[in-house]
């Protein structure tokens, strides 16, 4: 069941993006669950034509699933709100920034168009980029070819994916129908056999959805024309696009959020390494993550593919290679012959092998790949689950410290290390007097960050003959923090809308055509108010980005309890 604060946040997002009419439909679907068209019209008091228009708009933006359910002799279509897709709209700013850094401003504009319109075809993208408005044919065709190749690059690197009508169908309904059919054919079966069949059904659906959004399905392979029996394959024609692979103009394209989540995850791991040791160590981790990208990556994976240390130098910038020796305290950059030794030293540091201890290091970011022989050199894997799990625990400790101070943080760290403990043991280990320790434990228990287990010493379960053990249930603690973060984001969205409503007249004057051309036409008072409004909106956006990053760490990264993660069981 979705968190009530997440539901409130999603409704705020929809109202801010589409208005109150669409927001009312989203409110009903979020709070009532799956509904058919007649029920939506009943709860929203909308006419059928208006409700259909809202549903089409939400499906266009990938915010609704639909499914046909048999009722008697007819099929009834039901609609279900896609909560995760809605909450991911808060990540658009980072997605645009990552795209511009890697591919440039044109790619960023293409991604912005697709995000704002939900899904688009190639001709629609080219038209929206203003190509048809260019007067001269030569520059217009060159621009068209440039944008087509840019969309092709984004598609082949899976930054955008094709989407079909099948992917709009609710996957859970399809799963239940296939489960019932498979279990009906089995007859009398054991629980293990039923569980195996259910897993197989999910895997089959996942494979079908993977094929539906395979980038290759939206690419038209090059057709080599023949003239008088001779195949034309000159490099000039291929580079000009006449026979090159092209994006299917009939294919609808949408943004692949998972690719951007992987980039953000890698940046967080790199930042964690740099914060733990130094900047050069972060550069080494950045190169290792680049090398691991050659293997198939996905957000659910716990470790990366094997990476050789010897090939990392080619993936590093010159200034990054020069800083390797400086990270170990040298005054000048190392010679080229010693760079391999330095990389091996950094890999040993990141894997916890630098101290020679036989005890497993829980804070290590890498592990040696034991499946590779010595002849292949040292191969390492990035331990995403362990690294991201540490990030989540650090976020928990930060929340505790901000709300109850450093002594409460010490208490939480003691319980994370020691497990279930009595208040006397916690007080002694954390070096806090018993009275203060008891008060802090009670406050954190009220906030659902720690739990209590009662162990009665007598049959009557009297309180004075009961042992109370305190412990940190990470699943409940993370869920509690996540709910607080959702509430914060909802309040920020509400504050943004309130500011826009408050200065509605000012914005209308500022957005006039003549004022946009010459800002001096605004009065002095309006200019000051507009500057104050822009400063307020910048502060709201900054707070929103920081809060959403914490949501990403808790909800989307591996590591920690599965109950908190927002995983789609049918994702790739």
Distance between the termini: 23 Å
Low-pLDDT segments: 224-241
What's the domain count? 6
- As a whole number of angstroms, the C-alpha radius of gyration is 28 Å
Helix content: 55-70%
Q: Which second-level CATH architecture of the largest domain applies?
A: Orthogonal Bundle
For the report, how would you describe the main beta sheet?
Answer: 3 strands, antiparallel
Task: Supply the CATH superfamily name of the largest domain.
Answer: Winged helix-like DNA-binding domain superfamily/Winged helix DNA-binding domain
Name the strands of the widest sheet in spatial order.
Answer: 1-3-2
Global morphology: globular
> How large is the share of residues in beta strands?
5-15%
Give the number of helices.
Answer: 24
Number of strands: 15
Classify the secondary structure makeup into a structural class: mainly alpha
Mean pLDDT, all residues: 85
CATH classification, class level of the largest domain: Mainly Alpha
The CATH topology of the largest domain corresponds to Arc Repressor Mutant, subunit A
Protein name: DNA-directed RNA polymerase III subunit RPC3
Subcellular location: Nucleus
GO molecular function: single-stranded DNA binding
GO cellular component, one term: RNA polymerase III complex
């Amino acid at each position: 069941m979705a968190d009530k604060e997440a539901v409130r946040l999603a409704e705020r997002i929809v109202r801010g993006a589409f208005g109150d009419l669409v927001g009312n439909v989203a409110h009903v679907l979020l709070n009532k669950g799956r509904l058919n068209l007649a029920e939506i019209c009943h709860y929203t008091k909308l006419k059928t034509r208006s409700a259909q228009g809202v549903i089409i708009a939400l499906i266009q933006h990938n915010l609704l699933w639909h499914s046909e359910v048999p009722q008697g002799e007819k099929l009834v279509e039901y609609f279900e709100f896609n909560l995760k897709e809605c909450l991911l709209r808060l990540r658009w700013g980072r997605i645009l920034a990552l795209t511009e850094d890697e591919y440039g401003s044109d790619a960023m504009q293409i991604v912005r168009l697709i995000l704002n319109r939900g899904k688009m075809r190639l001709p629609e993208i080219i038209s929206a980029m203003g190509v048809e408005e260019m007067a001269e044919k030569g520059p217009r065709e060159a621009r068209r070819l440039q944008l087509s190749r840019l969309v092709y690059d984004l598609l082949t690197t899976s930054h955008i994916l094709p989407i079909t009508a099948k992917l709009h169908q609710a996957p859970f309904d399809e799963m239940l129908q296939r489960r019932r059919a498979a279990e009906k054919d089995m007859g009398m079966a054991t629980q293990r056999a039923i569980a195996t069949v259910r897993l197989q059904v999910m895997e089959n659906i996942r494979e079908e959805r993977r094929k539906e959004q395979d980038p290759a399905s939206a690419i038209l392979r090059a057709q080599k024309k023949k003239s008088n029996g001779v195949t034309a394959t000159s490099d000039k024609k291929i580079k000009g696009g006449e026979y090159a692979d092209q994006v299917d103009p009939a294919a609808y394209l949408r943004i692949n959020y998972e690719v951007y989540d992987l980039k953000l995850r890698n940046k967080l791991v790199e930042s964690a390494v740099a914060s733990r040791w130094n900047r050069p160590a972060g550069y080494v981790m950045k190169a290792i993550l680049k090398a691991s990208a050659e293997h198939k990556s996905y957000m659910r994976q716990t470790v990366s593919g094997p990476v050789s240390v010897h090939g990392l130098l080619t993936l590093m910038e010159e200034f990054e290679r020069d800083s390797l020796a400086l990270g170990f305290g040298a005054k000048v950059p190392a010679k080229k012959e010693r760079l391999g030794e330095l990389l091996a030293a950094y890999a040993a540091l990141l894997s916890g092998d630098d101290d020679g201890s036989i005890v497993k290091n829980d804070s290590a970011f890498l592990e040696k790949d034991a499946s590779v022989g010595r002849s292949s050199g040292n191969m390492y894997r990035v331990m995403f689950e362990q690294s991201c799990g540490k990030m989540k625990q650090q976020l928990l400790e930060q929340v505790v410290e901000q709300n109850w101070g450093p002594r409460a943080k010490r208490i939480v760290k003691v319980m994370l290390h020691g497990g279930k403990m009595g208040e006397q043991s916690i007080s002694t280990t954390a070096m806090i007097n018993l009275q203060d320790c008891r008060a802090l434990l009670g406050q954190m228990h009220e906030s659902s960050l720690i739990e209590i287990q009662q162990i009665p010493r007598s049959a009557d379960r009297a309180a004075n003959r009961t042992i109370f053990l305190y412990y940190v249930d990470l699943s409940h603690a993370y869920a509690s923090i996540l709910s607080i973060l959702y509430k914060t984001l909802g309040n920020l969205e509400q504050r943004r809308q309130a500011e826009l409503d408050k200065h509605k007249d000012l914005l209308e004057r500022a957005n006039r055509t003549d004022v946009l051309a010459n800002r001096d036409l605004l009065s002095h008072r309006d200019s000051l108010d507009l500057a104050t409004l822009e400063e307020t909106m910048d502060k709201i956006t900054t707070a929103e980005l920081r809060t959403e990053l914490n949501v990403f760490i808790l909800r989307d990264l591996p590591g920690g309890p599965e109950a908190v993660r927002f995983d789609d069981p049918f994702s790739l």
